[in-house]
Design goal:
With 386 residues, the protein is α/β, with parallel strands linked by helices. It contains twelve helices and twelve strands. Helix 7 links the parallel strand 8 and strand 9. Helix 10 packs parallel to helix 11. It starts with 11 loop residues before the first helix and ends in a 17-residue tail after the last helix. It binds S-adenosyl-L-homocysteine and iron/sulfur cluster (SF4). Iron/sulfur cluster binds next to helix 4.
Amino acid sequence: MNASPNLLDMDATALVAFCTQLGEKPFRARQLLRWIHVNGQSDIQAMSDLAKSFRNKLASSAQIFAPPVLKDSTASDGTRKWLLEVGGGNAVETVFIPEPDRGTLCVSSQAGCAVNCSFCSTGKQGFSRNLTPGEIIAQLWMAEFLLRRDLNQTERIISNVVMMGMGEPLLNYEPVLTALRLMLDDNAYGLSRRRVTLSTSGVVPMIERLARDLPVALAVSLHASNDRLRDQLVPLNKKYPIKELLTACNFYLKYAPRDFITFEYCMLDGVNDFDTHAYELIKLAEQVKCKFNLIPFNPFEGSGLKRSPKQRIERFAKILTDAGVFTTIRKTRGEDIDAACGQLAGAIQDRTKLAQRTLKFTAKRQLLNQGVSSNDLNVETIRPYS
Ligand code: SAH
Ligand code: SF4
């Protein structure tokens, strides 16, 4: 693999440092940022307002590299899922969810996850590795410009980002923070902090850090109304029990762009969906300003769990709502392509095929690095954008 620095790994500050190192003025960093993240340009030589000498210097010392797309599927409801190859036999998934008033991208932060929640297929897969900042922001970069191209649109398509894909974002803190900075940067994606949501299983010290560093909207995966149950469903609870979690949420609210925390609650038949659980949740809701989002469990092979029946979920929601706790039931999207919450697995089944594709891809990159134009290449084009 080519070891030259990847410009997708760099936020504004890092790009300024990189340009300075190349003997260029700091404002070049802003131009570069805009070429990459506003225009979706991956060909350094095509950045026409940069001096030819700078372009040559850049092209020989850096690259713009996004993980190759291994699979691209669209569900009957328009939800689109990409499987991205991140090396070492690992793949992660990114999901675009179109809605009439917004376009939401669900982004992954790790290959696999170490938290091992009993109802999550990513957790069942175990932890492989942290994604780099470039691998995280590349999901937005790839999706935005691919969608624009496919829909023949020049306007922005992705209006909201949720860090709710594979992995626990607060256990890959620095790279996630760099990617978040790019999402919010006016010279990149310019999203407001309210339109970027980070979902966590409850890494208490990092919730407090994020509050100080970059408080975006926060969702907390609660899933249980007492510690005994939560210890079983979200093993991280043994380290950071509910009381500490609620204290961290109240601290976060002092900095947050919204005046409530969203509690996610996966509805599991006969496990956490009794009336008594709803009443316990009402007590918890008295301690922190919050909204509940009930997620019908999305089954996957071997989980041994079942989704609560519709009437049960509706009754549960009514108990909460009647007590004045704002509650929504999440509409499940992309089920027919396994793109719904908790169904992202990413694991690569066919390693032979992966090896072949990676070979072709590497060959193409080597040629590009030698100055061959992509139009002249006779190898399969895996990168879908230019
Ligand atoms: N690790 C983070 C973010 C990724 S998971 C977290 O746990 O918050 C995103 C959301 O999907 C979480 O609320 C998670 O609990 C939920 N989820 C996981 N598996 C699920 C499943 N099988 N069905 C429904 N929701 C699930
Ligand atoms: Fe990890 Fe979140 Fe899945 Fe739990 S729900 S295993 S924290 S990705």
